[in-house]
Design goal:
It is built from 4 helices and 5 strands, in the order E-E-E-H-H-E-E-H-H. Helices cover about 40% and strands about 20% of the residues. Strands 1, 2, 3, 4 and 5 form a 5-stranded antiparallel beta sheet that branches. It is α+β, with helices and mostly antiparallel strands and about 120 residues long.
């Protein structure tokens, strides 16, 4: 199966204002989400959480890069394909953890706490 592609633009945000918007880029969805954006605390969100973000059409990551795309949703088969893609790319440092049960609003807190506790367990910390 071919990877789902995402078309997006990136803008640098700073205290001085908004930088120039990048030319349009096209890349596999998993690569954009987990290598470019790095917005999900190193874990693949559940489908409803991911679709909530994808419907927004924009997100700002931890390095103040704003990503914009045409809003869309993934189907369950598309999500399963993304999950396989994540598992095939350990360099993305993204886990598939299906233990979360809660609301869309609760997911970010759960994922952040999960990331912090994982970080604290690293031997050099």
């Amino acid at each position: 199966m071919l990877a789902i592609k995402m078309t997006f633009r990136v803008t640098q945000l700073s205290e001085d204002g908004i930088g120039a918007e990048s030319p349009e880029k096209i890349a596999p969805l998993g690569e954009v989400l987990f290598q470019e954006m790095r917005c999900f605390f190193g874990v693949l969100p559940p489908l409803d959480v991911l679709n909530d973000t994808l419907r927004e059409g924009e997100i700002v990551n931890g390095t103040n890069l704003m990503f914009r795309w045409r809003p869309f949703e993934l189907s369950m088969p598309g999500y399963e394909e993304l999950k396989r893609e994540v598992l095939a790319h350990p360099e993305w440092e993204t886990d598939v953890d299906e233990t979360f049960s809660g609301t869309i609003r609760e997911w970010s807190h759960w994922a952040l706490v999960r990331a912090i506790s994982k970080w604290k367990r690293w031997p050099d910390r």
